[in-house]
Amino acid sequence: xxxxxxxxxxxxxxxxxxxxxxxxxxxxxxxxxxxxxxxxxxxxxxxxxxxxxxxxxxxxxxxxxxxxxxxxxxxxxxxxxxxxxxxxxxxxxxxxxxxxxxxxxxxxxxxxxxxxxxxxxxxxxxxxxxxxxxxxxxxxxxxxxxxxxxxxxxxxxxxxxxxxxxxxxxxxxxxxxxxxxxxxxxxxxxxxxxxx
Length: 196
What we know:
Layout: H1 2-12, H2 15-24, H3 38-45, H4 47-71, H5 76-91, H6 104-114, H7 119-133, H8 137-155, H9 159-175, H10 177-180
């Protein structure tokens, strides 16, 4: 339980919000979708500070999960709880009156640690493909999560991993519920062969 709390606290530190306040004296919740996450830090302060925020938000989940799952003897339920703790912390941060971010970077950090980094290219490629095909950011996330599930179903089926994935996607659906009501809107493609 101690490690769950520590991982939760680590995940709940709103680095993007803090960086926005410290560096540009801006409340990033006044930008974009009013979320205290990296996307709005990027919009408020630019790509340099946005990139630092992204690294911090991924690391606050990746580092504690990596350390706890690799250096502690955990039961199955402890493995699940410790892995999901930083995602919960990010989503329901006590530092932001339990109104945290959408848990995207924290989710990425957890999956990077669980997979030992193997999922990094899969996550990046999936995000690029789905974002280039359609405009709804929330659907890009859900489809990328499905790619993670497919990877584990095909390579290393494990009930603990499936449990973590299930809790994670439920949280993501909850945090993106307003965007997921909207349908997938495909991007228009210019026909390079037109007129030939």
